[in-house]
Amino acid sequence: xxxxxxxxxxxxxxxxxxxxxxxxxxxxxxxxxxxxxxxxxxxxxxxxxxxxxxxxxxxxxxxxxxxxxxxxxxxxxxxxxxxxxxxxxxxxxxxxxxxxxxxxxxxxxxxxxxxxxxxxxxxxxxxxxxxxxxxxxxxxxxxxxxxxxxxxxxxxxxxxxxxxxxxxxxxxxxxxxxxxxxxxxxxxxxxxxxxxxxxxxxxxxxxxxxxxxxxxxxxxxxxxxxxxxxxxxxxxxxxxxxxxxxxxxxxxxxxxxxxxxxxxxxxxxxxxxxxxxxxxxxxxxxxxxxxxxxxxxxxxxxxxxxxxxxxxxxxxxxxxxxxxxxxxxxxxxxxxxxxxxxxxxxxxxxxxxxxxxxxxxxxxxxxxxxxxxxx
Length: 375
Fold this sequence. Notes:
Elements: H1 24-37, H2 44-56, E1 61-65, H3 68-78, E2 86-89, H4 96-103, E3 107-110, H5 122-128, E4 133-137, H6 148-157, E5 161-165, E6 173-174, E7 177-178, E8 185-189, E9 203-207, H7 210-220, E10 224-226, E11 229-230, H8 241-250, H9 254-271, E12 292-295, H10 299-308, H11 336-344, E13 345-348, H12 356-368
Parallel strand pairs: 2-3, 2-4, 4-5, 5-8
Antiparallel strand pairs: 1-9, 6-7, 8-9, 10-11, 12-13
Helix pairs in contact: 1-8, 2-8, 3-4, 3-7, 9-12
């Protein structure tokens, strides 16, 4: 054990992320509204948020649940995915994407990523398809859409269900079309760090399929079709009224906050030209910049250097999913591009409250980084 705190234990002067609410007044009004009403689960705030968020996301129906993980898992269950099925997804994502597949009894299969977009490679997906493949979960990673036209062509050709993981891509678009509207349904997370975050956990699935939405609504409430009548084995996964009210307050501000994220990213791209890092290209103007990753062959040295200068960073993600112990019982996948990215990727601070002078500070530090020799 180290005899002092690690870089992750010390709050840097310029933090990677700021979660202290800047909308305290609106949050308090929302909470007070719920307290005065005295309804805390499956109430009017939840119903209103479901409709409002679905409309913002370009869908006709929204069903809120306890987390983004549950949104994925219950959507897959609602579509009939389960034991004996294989679901292809990316090795470069939070583990919860694959855990949602496991929760259904299906098997996660990992296909490699595109080295520029950092999302599922359509050709790698094609190579991973077997007679047991039933569905595909593309992840719109870091806020940039996966190549949905190409992935939908593969899915259509092989008769696969597509469920989009939009947990990092609220209101992103792909070729002008909202992410989450290409496949059968989409899953969103409202974890506090997300572009649209609650003050706790929460998630939602969005779809244009009324039958699917109705089934997920039953599954999230223990499989009840009426009070104390359980027609199937559902789960207990509900977005409570307090979080729904807070999200309703924050949703109208999301477009403005997204534009600030895009402005910060544009500054990074311009000012870091020539810096000793590689910046993944923006391949669609609909990118919403949940995160701003850069790549460096000396990632760990770069991170330590920035930490010493009081600048916080995080790694998203250090270990590709096929190499995680939780998935060791499944057939391992060779995902060489994802392996390389996981060794090099580093996320810089990016959030709407980040001041211009702080952005300049990050850029100046990166441009001064002198990578030590690898020899």
